[in-house]
Backbone:
């Protein structure tokens, strides 16, 4: 299991070594980057089931060498056609767990069909083979899955179908135990044979909806049948000659571009990496981007976002001018779920895929739908019940989404593919990774391994802390606290910093991959 790899032909990075190997397997069998990406995505849904799966959403950035353009696929689901605020009358918020938190249709399978259907060389059935194999035969349970299973044991035990899978014999399985998901394997086989229709219009959808309805859920078979993701133009920004690409709203990706364009106004040569100024400026740029993000982000079909203004160079000047070099901005932001899986693939032809997927919280809603083995997401719980809120719950609406895969191009070709787990932490960690590679010349594995920070609240925490890994220089920590940041020093490689991965493609075609030492991933290249 290698954290870094170098290759001339291909590169795969993901948070689980078996998923990375699945992508490499598909490439070696004659598939391209799109086939391999679907294989990695499906495999992650099996071997990292606490973070992602068929019951969740996905966002994709793709680059096809023959086309020479970046495209985005929005694989997020909408709320049910009969799901509105009245369904939660008398409640302060939508529940975070259980059947009534699963109020948006999962977009994952549709995303696979779209990416492979438009660009793949193999069949969907071939791409799903590694995932089916690991679900049916089992695989060694990862340290990360063991940690989160222990953390969520009481919640998992509340749902009989979930407990039967994730708490065999009522206990938390040990790291290295063989973990089998036979019902999920059967669902994957059905999708392999029948495509997206098998999931959204056939027996699988009927079983999911019946289980939800029995438990008081709100989605219908019509909601599943109506689901469609879509190819969209990515949002674009610029940074020192790089073209920055992110998935468009309802993704928060534009906030990452806003922060980088503001930071472009500062000379990295006068800001040593790891210094007080390095961390302070990045944190403050992110906060300023979050102010606009929180005010504007939701489904663009329901609210027109002023992206041209927010991503303009004039607005970047304004944001940069608002950064006080010696004082932290007093700003609060609502907490968001942080459990996600990011991966990327580049093949020999130069095709590239940067993608990310999630159940929202760890184990999503906690609700496994009947005998499908599908653990449903709780992404819809982030909708507001305030009718005046921009992200207020309405029927057939996509919620504010934290998922944001990134790609940076140079001279019209992909130079960096990068992303991370982490909810609120995604724009923060992406900003660190990109600047470390683009401004400080770090290789991908160095950029993701260097000390990180996380500003903001997470669920269950009252304070908006600035968490700093203990490897950060003590004088830098002292100065950040002195500037008014609510500093908390955490572990050297703290799990809350998320799992980040990156691929760089040099001018001579060398692919370099790096995966995060905070996870169970691997970079595979040759």
Residues:
């Amino acid at each position: 299991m290698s954290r870094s790899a170098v290759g001339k032909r291909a590169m795969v990075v993901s948070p689980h070594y078996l998923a990375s190997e699945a992508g490499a397997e598909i490439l070696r069998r004659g598939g391209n980057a799109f086939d391999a990406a679907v294989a990695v995505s499906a495999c992650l849904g099996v071997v990292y089931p606490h973070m992602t799966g068929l019951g969740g959403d996905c966002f994709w950035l793709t680059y096809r060498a023959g086309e020479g353009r970046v495209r985005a696929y929005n694989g997020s689901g909408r709320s049910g056609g009969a799901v509105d605020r009245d369904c939660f009358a008398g409640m302060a918020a939508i529940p975070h767990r259980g059947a009534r938190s699963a109020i948006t249709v999962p977009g994952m399978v549709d995303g696979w069909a779209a990416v492979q259907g438009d660009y793949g060389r193999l069949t969907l059935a071939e791409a799903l083979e590694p995932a089916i194999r690991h679900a049916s035969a089992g695989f060694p349970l990862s340290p990360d899955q063991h940690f989160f299973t222990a953390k969520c044991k009481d919640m998992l035990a509340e749902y009989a179908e979930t407990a039967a899978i994730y708490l065999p014999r009522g206990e938390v399985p040990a790291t290295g135990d063989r973990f089998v998901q036979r019902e999920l394997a059967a669902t994957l086989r059905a999708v392999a044979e029948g495509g997206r229709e098998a999931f959204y219009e056939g027996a699988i959808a009927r079983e999911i909806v019946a289980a939800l309805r029995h438990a008081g859920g709100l989605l219908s078979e019509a909601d599943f049948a109506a689901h469609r993701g879509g190819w969209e133009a990515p949002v674009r920004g610029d940074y020192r000659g790089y073209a920055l690409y992110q998935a468009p709203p309802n993704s928060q990706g534009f906030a990452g571009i806003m922060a980088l364009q503001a930071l472009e106004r500062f000379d990295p040569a006068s800001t040593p990496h790891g210094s007080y100024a390095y961390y302070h400026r990045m944190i403050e740029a992110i906060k300023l981007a979050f102010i606009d993000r929180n005010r504007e982000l939701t489904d663009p079909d329901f609210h027109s976002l002023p992206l041209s203004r927010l991503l303009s160079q004039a607005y970047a000047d304004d944001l940069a001018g608002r950064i006080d070099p010696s004082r932290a901005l007093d700003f609060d932001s609502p907490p968001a779920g942080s459990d996600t899986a990011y991966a990327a693939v580049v093949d020999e032809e130069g095709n590239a895929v940067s993608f990310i997927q999630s159940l929202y919280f760890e184990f999503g809603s906690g609700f496994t739908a009947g005998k499908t083995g599908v653990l449903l997401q709780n992404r819809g719980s982030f909708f507001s019940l305030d009718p005046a809120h921009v992200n207020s719950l309405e029927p057939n609406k996509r919620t504010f989404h934290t998922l944001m895969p990134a790609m940076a191009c140079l001279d019209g070709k992909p130079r960096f593919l990068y992303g991370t787990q982490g909810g609120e932490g995604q724009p923060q960690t992406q900003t660190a990774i990109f600047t470390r590679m683009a401004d400080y010349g770090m290789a991908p594995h160095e950029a993701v391994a260097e000390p990180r920070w996380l500003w903001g609240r997470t669920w269950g925490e009252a304070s908006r802390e600035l968490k700093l890994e203990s490897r950060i220089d003590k004088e830098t920590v002292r100065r950040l606290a002195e500037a008014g940041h609510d500093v908390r020093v955490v572990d050297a490689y703290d799990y809350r910093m998320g799992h980040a991965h990156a691929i760089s493609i040099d001018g001579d075609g060398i692919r370099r991959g790096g995966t995060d030492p905070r996870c169970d991933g691997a970079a595979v290249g040759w």
